[in-house]
Amino acid sequence: MAIIFSISGVRGRVPDELTPDIMVQLGKSIGTYFRGDILIGRDGRRSSHLLEHALISGILLTGSNVRIGGIVPTPTLIYNTHKLNVAGGIMITASHNPEVWNGIKFLHPDGRFLLPREVQQLNQIYHQNRYHIASWDKFGTISYDHHMIERHIHRILELVDTKSISSGHFKVVVDGLNSSFGLAATKLLDALNVDHICINCEPGRGFTRLPEPIPQHLTDLSQAVLNHKADLGITSDADGDRLSIVTDHGVPIGEEYTLPLVAYHLCKSRHGPIVTNLSTSQMIEHIASPIIRTPVGEAHVVAKMLETHAILGGEGNGGIIDPQLHYTRDALIGTARILELLAHEGCKLSEILTRFPHYSMIKDKLPISTTIPKAKLIAYLNPDTIREDDGLWLRRDKIMVHVRPSNTEPIVRIVVETPDDHTTSRILQDIKDIILTQCAA
């Protein structure tokens, strides 16, 4: 199977699909597209260092220069791409995918991911082999930058109420997944004068759990929060853009709560639209308005945020986009905002959550590539609202269904949310039956 090239970047299994040879070709495409100084960062996957060398070789062939940041979170690299006024940036990561996967994300010098039309231009260079190859005496050069995380944290400290956070005397447990988030989060907590304990914080030694930070993967973090009587547990995926939280009771609440919690806090001082995607929990509509929904994919959310001058953006996968910092999901600013919320409210996170409406959401997937049977699903649910700009999105009363092909894997993703567990499970099973029946026909 070939690599997956989408608005989310490039993904593939190593070494079967994403090979060093392909990384060289991608490097030539990237160097041709950006034509200038390019920042490079990577997550903690064991394959990331190998792929980094191949990618850099391709970039240098085009005459573009490379500045290496090492293991850093994606939002850190994006912030530096904008701050340092370079031509672009490349993050080597497969984000939430298992460790056998890897990939790259394309970063715009404005401090965001490339928009869909920009990714398409780069994609055309790659598939049409339209590379600019420099002469032997014009190849690019390599330099190193060891201060990317510090620059990122310095800007976060300028935006949040550091005095209140420091005075809160919080204790936080960090699960670093042996990747980039733990490295950066502990430095942020030190700067905020927050006591912290870090588990799995040895980048490059291999992941200690599946990287998607969903509740069933966070048993070690939950137990550590209880053992240390901490106020909060935090973790992320492999590249530090999704924030997942464990409460003071040791309960992993799931990433769907991250955006509503930050919105609940910031809407007390900011006024304007909030942008999120179609798969995000309906909780957000109970917290703020107006809410604008886009297709899944950070690039879609950011494009709409720029268009509407949104005060906040994000996705139900734990992604917080604070435009005061930059236009990308950022687990570090998310962490700082959650601590700021706790400091200003003067109570435990478990208490704040009692103010939120209850919804039951299940995210599932089918390992198939098939046409979604839209007419049958619409007839089944009889929805009040239908959207077809990202698979099929249906809503009726407090029931929400989203069925879509993945941007990053050869699967169909299914999201079902209702007010109770039984109804959610029943509707999910019915939808899977409808899709599988169509696939077998």
What would you say this structure looks like, in words?
Helix content is 37%, strand content 23%. The chain is α/β, with parallel strands linked by helices and 441 residues long. The chain folds into three domains: 4-146, 3-Layer(aba) Sandwich (Alpha-D-Glucose-1,6-Bisphosphate, Chain A, domain 3); 151-353, Alpha-D-Glucose-1,6-Bisphosphate, subunit A, domain 3 (Alpha-D-Glucose-1,6-Bisphosphate, Chain A, domain 3), CATH 3.40.120.10; 360-440, Alpha-D-phosphohexomutase, C-terminal domain (TATA-Binding Protein), CATH 3.30.310.50. A hairpin with an 8-residue loop joins strand 5 and strand 6. Helix 9 (258-266) packs across helix 12 (331-345). The longest helix has 20 residues, at 421-440. The protein is globular. The two termini are 24 Å apart.
Task: Map the helices and strands.
Blueprint: E1 4-6, E2 9-13, H1 20-34, E3 37-42, H2 48-61, E4 65-71, H3 74-83, E5 88-92, E6 101-108, E7 112-113, H4 116-128, E8 142-144, H5 148-159, H6 162-167, E9 171-175, H7 180-191, E10 195-199, H8 219-227, E11 232-235, E12 244-246, H9 258-266, E13 274-277, H10 283-287, E14 291-294, H11 298-308, E15 312-315, E16 319-321, H12 331-345, H13 349-353, E17 360-366, H14 374-381, E18 385-387, E19 392-396, E20 399-405, E21 412-418, H15 421-440
Parallel strand pairs: 3-4, 3-5, 4-8, 9-10, 9-11, 13-14, 13-15
Antiparallel strand pairs: 1-2, 2-6, 5-6, 6-7, 11-12, 15-16, 17-21, 18-19, 19-20, 20-21
